[in-house]
């Protein structure tokens, strides 16, 4: 029976995964990494009434917890969770990882495991930092090494540490060594599951991300030939969320040809679907789901996601209109809240009279911050108001620090700045388009090039460092 350890929050009971790592040779050139995922599919009826109900109650793109809970009683959830104290059914992945992070060998199989310990993220971070001692210290050390190797071998924007930040498969920043370890091993499991499902030709709920479908991003792909190294700094701030597809396709931010989330079947319905399909492959059985059914699931998930975006947008607009139409509220809001009100001008497409009056009073009193000024200059506010603001800047207003406004303007400009880097000359080129004005600035750093381009937009002059 395979032995693993589980790492999660101190109060979590629905533990999906267990991990283990140990060196194969004395130098640690090869590490045997084991990832065990709770075998939820083994305990559920085959497309019974519970799953039919869950299919009809799809909640959102990312969180399927309510659907899985509708199919599992609390007793079954606890029996499947990888808690210490007895064998648990799992779908296990074992892989041999080289020093360079290459996968030398990998294999899935259905088995049982026993967790020898459940450690919290805080405990693991303490052990890895040398602040605490534990009998599993060496296992944790090799797990951290294996995760680090996988991260370095990845080519995408996500799933690796870049400039001190680790981003998971949704692009969220993950802090803490333990948290990164679990996120990294989960991404690896989903990557290998995606490859297995793709090779089999079975339909599944693949995560596919193609930024070329975005009208603002498509020209950059054509210009740079889809090179992720060049495109990364240009589009990382505006990547679209991945969508569900029945057939495998590229996940651009992870730079993976197939990605199927399977590491949390106790908490996400898509993971349960993919685990069922994975088990069918391992058992040499026919596909559990017909493609038409999963295609319908993808469509419903996408419809739900679109509806939620529209609902949040409408809610934001209603809140903004209430605030922007009340002089009393505008006089009492904080600077951050006032910035949020200004930000909605581009969404609504108009400036309420009460808001315009408040802006003119604040400009006269000198109580607008650099961020407020940048927002006014980059959004659809009256031209005379913008001119008055520029006049204030040129007069050296003490609060409206010109450089700070220009720096902020470079971030809030109507269209995203485009960057090119010339390695031979060590120069960055920044291009901005704003109100039919196109400028280009060159500097030794990306930040400085953006500052200069913002200055050129505002002043209408040619500047080069």
Helix content: 40-55%
What separation lies between the terminal Cα atoms? 66 Å
Number of helices: 18
What can be said about the biggest beta sheet? 5 strands, mixed
Strand content: 15-25%
Tell me the total number of β-strands.
Answer: 13
Mean pLDDT: 82
Strand order of the largest sheet: 1-5-4-3-2
Radius of gyration based on Cα positions: 26 Å
| Low confidence ranges | 461-465
User: Judging from the principal axes of the Cα atoms, what is the shape?
Assistant: globular
Protein architecture, described:
The structure is a single chain. This protein has 465 residues and is α+β, with helices and mostly antiparallel strands. It has 18 helices and 13 strands. The chain has helices at 49-56, 65-71, 74-80, 121-128, 137-153, 177-200, 218-224, 228-235, 269-282, 291-324, 327-332, 335-343, 345-348, 353-365, 370-378, 383-394, 402-412, 446-459, and strands at 2-8, 17-23, 30-38, 88-98, 103-120, 161-162, 165-167, 173-174, 206-208, 243-245, 418-422, 427-434, 437-443. It has a five-stranded mixed β-sheet with strand order 1-5-4-3-2. A hairpin with a 2-residue loop joins strand 12 and strand 13. Helix 6 crosses helix 9, helix 12 runs parallel beside helix 15 (370-378) and helix 17 crosses helix 18 (446-459). It starts with a strand and ends in a 6-residue tail after the last helix. Mean pLDDT is 82; it is low at 461-465.
């Amino acid at each position: 029976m395979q032995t693993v350890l589980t790492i999660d929050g101190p109060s979590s009971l629905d533990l999906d995964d267990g991990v283990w790592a140990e060196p194969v040779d004395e130098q640690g050139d090869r590490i045997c990494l084991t990832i065990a995922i709770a075998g939820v599919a083994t305990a559920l009826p085959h497309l019974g009434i519970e799953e039919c109900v869950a299919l009809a109650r799809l909640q959102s793109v990312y969180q399927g917890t309510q659907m899985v809970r509708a199919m599992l009683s609390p007793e079954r959830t606890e029996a499947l969770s990888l808690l210490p104290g007895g064998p648990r059914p799992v779908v296990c992945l074992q892989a041999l990882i080289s020093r360079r992070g290459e996968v030398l060998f990998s294999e899935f199989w259905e088995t049982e495991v026993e967790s020898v310990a459940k450690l919290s993220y805080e405990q693991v971070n303490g052990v890895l930092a040398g602040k605490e001692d534990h009998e599993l210290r060496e296992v944790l050390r090799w797990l951290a090494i294996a995760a680090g190797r996988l991260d370095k071998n990845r080519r995408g924007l996500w799933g690796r540490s870049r400039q001190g930040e680790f981003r998971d498969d949704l692009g969220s920043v993950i802090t803490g060594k333990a948290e990164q370890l679990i996120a990294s091993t989960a991404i690896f499991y989903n990557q290998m599951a995606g490859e297995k499902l793709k090779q089999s030709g079975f339909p599944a709920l693949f995560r596919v991300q193609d930024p070329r479908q975005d009208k603002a991003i498509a020209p950059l792909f054509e210009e740079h030939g889809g090179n992720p190294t060049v495109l990364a700094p240009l589009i990382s701030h505006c990547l679209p969320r991945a969508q569900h597809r029945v057939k495998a396709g590229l996940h651009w931010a992870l730079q993976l040809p197939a990605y199927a989330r399977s590491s949390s079947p106790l908490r996400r319905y898509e993971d349960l679907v993919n685990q069922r399909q994975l088990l069918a492959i391992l058992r040499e059985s026919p596909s559990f789901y017909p493609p038409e059914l999963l295609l319908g699931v993808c469509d419903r998930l996408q419809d739900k996601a679109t509806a939620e975006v529209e609902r949040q947008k409408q809610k934001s607009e209603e809140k903004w209109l209430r605030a922007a139409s009340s002089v009393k509220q505008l006089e009492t809001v904080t600077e951050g809240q006032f910035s949020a009100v200004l930000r909605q001008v581009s969404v609504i497409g108009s400036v309420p009279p009460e808001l315009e009056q408040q802006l003119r009073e604040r400009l006269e009193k000198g109580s607008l911050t650099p961020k407020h000024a940048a927002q006014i200059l980059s959004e659809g506010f009256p031209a005379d108001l913008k001119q008055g603001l520029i006049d204030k800047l040129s007069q050296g207003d003490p609060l409206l620090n010109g450089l700070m406004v220009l720096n902020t303007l470079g971030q809030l400009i109507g269209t995203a700045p485009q960057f090119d880097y010339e390695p031979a000359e060590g120069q960055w080129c920044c291009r901005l388009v704003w109100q039919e004005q196109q400028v280009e600035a060159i500097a030794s750093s990306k930040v400085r090039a953006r500052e200069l381009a913002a200055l050129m937009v505002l002043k209408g002059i040619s500047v080069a460092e």
